[in-house]
Amino acid sequence: MHSESRIKRRLSRKIWVGSVPVGGDAPIAVQSMTNTDTCDVDATVAQIKRLQDAGADIVRVSVPDMDAAEAFGRIKQRAELPLVADIHFDYQIALRVAELGVDCLRINPGNIGREDRVKAVVEAARDRGIPIRIGVNAGSLEKDLQKKYGEPTPEALVESALRHVEHLDRLNFPDFKVSVKASDVFMAVEAYRLLARQIEQPLHLGITEAGGLRSGTVKSSVGLGMLLAEGIGDTIRISLAADPVEEIKVGFDILKSLHLRSRGINFIACPSCSRQNFDVVKTMNELEGRLDDLLVPLDVAVIGCVVNGPGEAKEAHVGLTGGTPNNLIYIDGKPAQKLTNDNLVDELEQLIRRKAAEKLEADAALILRS
């Protein structure tokens, strides 16, 4: 049971997105973005609730016009998570959602327009304690930077970001976070590395337009994994052409793999082979679906035979090792009981839920004692 991360995180300035701390010593926040029509308030609120149930810390909502701004106000009244308003071009939309209680403004000062308009947005944010997120994307670089560099590059992304940072610096507004996203993994990673050395603000990580569920998960895991392992990153968003709930699941899986966040079950499972004494793949598919609701951090090992099974099981809260004639269950690293293949998943699920309840009770008691 390995819970401590060896990663030394980059120390950044702490800001607050609603009730969620970002940067400093705060846990890395996981966020997603709604893909409903913002003017459909019921559908958007329902999706935010699904994201909350999946573990989202923050949700971003696109606000393209004033009708959407008014709808955002009604959404904000019903949502329990901090909401970021995604705004481009029209500074008046930013002013309106600030009045309506937005928790963070996602803007590019460069496309908001004149200095006085940027100042108006910053002053509204300052007066209400609202942080700003500067979002730079390789697909929408300024024309002069495209001409200067010939194509999107890490240096171009960082130069664009620093221009926007200078906007806010001139207005003495330090409470912001920055993203420099690209769909190319190496470009994004290098841009974040360069920027991390030049500003103190938190960094929001993402591989933009990463792809569908499988390919996007792979690209995001590779890119964000490289950065997070170097201590870079304070919030993450996994950009998938899929149900946004999957973005939250993948985000937490990445953080769990690096021991940066603990939420739900960390499965250790073999890929299976002819030595398996039960159907490992089928067992895992059923367990993942059934136990999706468990939020207690648990290590569960599901190993099909005795080659690696006992070793993995001894390091887990609950371990299953395939054996003949019976499979062996380990609880907290110690042999506990034997199970046949009949009703294996049902019985294993009950054991895992029982252990989760015990751990939840023990953790609560520990908190009370401290």
From TrEMBL:
InterPro entries: Dihydropteroate_synth-like_sf (IPR011005), IspG_bac (IPR016425), IspG_bac-typ (IPR004588), IspG_C (IPR058579), IspG_TIM (IPR058578), NO2/SO3_Rdtase_4Fe4S_sf (IPR045854). Its EC number is 1.17.7.3. Binds 1 [4Fe-4S] cluster. Pfam families: GcpE (PF04551), GcpE_C (PF26540). Keywords: 4Fe-4S, Iron, Iron-sulfur, Isoprene biosynthesis, Metal-binding, Oxidoreductase. SUPFAM superfamilies: Dihydropteroate synthetase-like, Nitrite and sulphite reductase 4Fe-4S domain-like. Its cofactor is [4Fe-4S] cluster. One of its GO terms (molecular function) is 4-hydroxy-3-methylbut-2-en-1-yl diphosphate synthase activity (ferredoxin). Pathway: Isoprenoid biosynthesis; isopentenyl diphosphate biosynthesis via DXP pathway; isopentenyl diphosphate from 1-deoxy-D-xylulose 5-phosphate: step 5/6. Gene3D superfamilies: Dihydropteroate synthase-like, Sulfite Reductase Hemoprotein, domain 1. Belongs to the IspG family. This is 4-hydroxy-3-methylbut-2-en-1-yl diphosphate synthase (flavodoxin). The lineage of its organism: Bacteria, Pseudomonadati, Pseudomonadota, Gammaproteobacteria, Pseudomonadales.
